[in-house]
Amino acid sequence: MSTATTTAPRSAATTPTDLAAPRPDLAAIPFTRLLGVEARKTFDTRSGFWLLAGIGIAATLATAAVIVFAPDSAQVYGSFAQAVGFPMALLLPVVAVLAVTSEWSQRSGLTTFTLVPRRGRVLLAKGVVAVAVGVVSMLLAMGIGALGNLLGAAINGVDPVWDSSVQQLAMIVLANVLGLLVGFTLGVLLRSSPAAITAYVVYWFLLPTMFGLLAAYQSWFADVQGWIDFQYSSTLLYEGDLSATEWAHLGVSGLLWLVLPLAVGVLLVRRSEVK
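Above: the chain sequence. Below: its structure as tokens.
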């Protein structure tokens, strides 16, 4: 008795040709979409919203302080511009810190870096959004200062004085953007909101005191302070024009305190495990 051996036809879905066919490449997420997502992250959280609202509140309070407490001779736009500039120097870096560290503190990085494996693109998008928020916030603060200048002149019964040029205002914006980038760098390096914010407070308040004392008692450090102390060099931007040497100080100290640490931080982020 013979038995017939039958072979079931191979399914078309499992033919060797189909199994060997390469998978189609998926299009990368556009960078503009990353920018939109990171911008929404900046405003969506409760802490982010109130931090950005605090920028407007701080600018309004600084403007009111100039109107109430400054003498009549100081009721000029330059006073208002400097008054609103200094609170921004403390608040804007916190915005940049939270833009980076939220991926680790809220564990959203597990999703973000799964959808966008190239972490450098994500960090670049965060940096661009942080700088854009900083520039827009400074323009808003300067607009509030302009309204304060008009109001102060009306209260005093004098003509408003516009003593700040566009170049001087641009220097103030640049100074605050550099401070914001320091906060961004600390966020990339430490990837922890409390640690990065604490490090920035130390950078903003403690280091200038230490460097100032060292420059006062050590002549050799006074000669090189501009090349080493990035905050000292960037603070000169609030005073107006910088000489060629002062621009060189800003560039070299920025390389030490901004560019190199950021490069190390990006390398660590690309190799770190997100938990």
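The radius of gyration is 26 Å.
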